[in-house]
Design brief:
By secondary structure, the protein is mainly α. The protein has one domain. It contains 12 helices and 2 strands; from the N terminus they run H-H-H-H-H-H-H-H-H-H-H-E-E-H. It has a two-stranded antiparallel ribbon. The two termini are 21 Å apart.
Length: 276
């Protein structure tokens, strides 16, 4: 397991050294919190605590976005030659991929926690049980989307392709997840996309955990945009949690298998990072 630990610790150190990246990633989340706090007043019908509801959504979207963004580091490491040296070493590739996933998830969760801490100044309050549940959902989301990000990065082997896919597909999905604007305020014709969006279920499960909404009547959860009617079935936060667990397990296995068999002889990136 030395290879896994080495990759994990190296990625954490590199992230902490890049203070500009750390600062800008947090500033963006705080800016979204500031901007959408004004929007919530007009669209938060049926929601008891609009601002904590928004904070929870932004916190979990921060985890998602950072887990995805940190997955591109594998492309930079490959282009610079560092990761190619690791791949030809005796370290098993599965340890390398696992180190990448866990480090990306840890960095993403740390940033999500910072947003939750900042949320205390906006009125967010977490009970001990809610705090534990929030950290659990956050860790699950971090691993799930770090795995998904590594899979996409491995398949694309090109940072430009990865960034385009993130911008064109994943950014719209983040706005259709209910994280920034409640799902109940979105147009009816978008509801099928909302329900099939994995980010919707991450947001719903995290809100239910952080706001202590597990066990509330289903009709109340539906009105808050945390449970979702789908045909004759209503997906509750527990169902959302199970869906994300299945999504994470599938892409965890796929990313490790794909990374273990991928040919990295030619990798293109749009930039090079100085130092390692």
């Amino acid at each position: 397991m030395r290879g896994l630990i080495a990759i994990f610790s190296r990625n954490i150190r590199n992230f902490l050294r890049d203070r500009t990246k750390v600062a800008f990633s947090l500033i963006m989340s705080l800016l979204l919190l500031f901007v959408f706090s004004f929007v919530m007043g007009g669209v938060a019908r049926g929601i008891e605590r609009p601002l904590p509801y928004l904070i929870a959504g932004i916190a979990i979207m921060t985890v998602f976005q950072q887990a995805m963004n940190n997955s591109t580091e594998i492309l930079t490491d490959l282009a610079s030659g560092f990761m190619k040296e690791v791949i030809v070493s005796p370290v098993p590739r599965w340890q390398v991929s696992l180190g990448q996933i866990l480090s990306a998830a840890a960095i993403a969760c740390a940033q999500g926690i910072v947003i939750l801490v900042a949320g205390f100044f906006f009125g967010l309050r977490l009970s001990p049980l809610a705090a534990i549940g929030s950290l659990g959902v956050m860790a699950l989301a971090g691993v799930a989307f770090a795995s998904f990000g590594l899979f996409v990065a491995t398949v694309s082997r090109n940072s430009s392709t990865f960034q385009i896919a993130t911008s064109v597909v994943l950014m719209p999905l983040s706005f259709l997840s209910g994280a920034y604007i409640p799902a109940t305020a979105l147009p009816v014709f978008l509801r099928p996309v909302v329900v099939m969006n994995p980010l919707t279920h991450v947001t719903a499960a995290f809100r239910a955990a952080s706001l202590g909404l597990f066990g509330r009547p289903t009709s109340e959860l539906v009105s808050m945009g945390i449970a979702f009617p789908f045909g004759s079935v209503t997906v509750t936060p527990i169902g959302s949690l199970l869906l994300i667990l299945a999504f994470g397990a599938a892409f965890f296995a796929l990313s490790v298998l794909k990374f273990s068999s991928a040919d990295f002889s030619s990798v293109k990136v749009g930039f090079r990072r100085r130092g390692h």
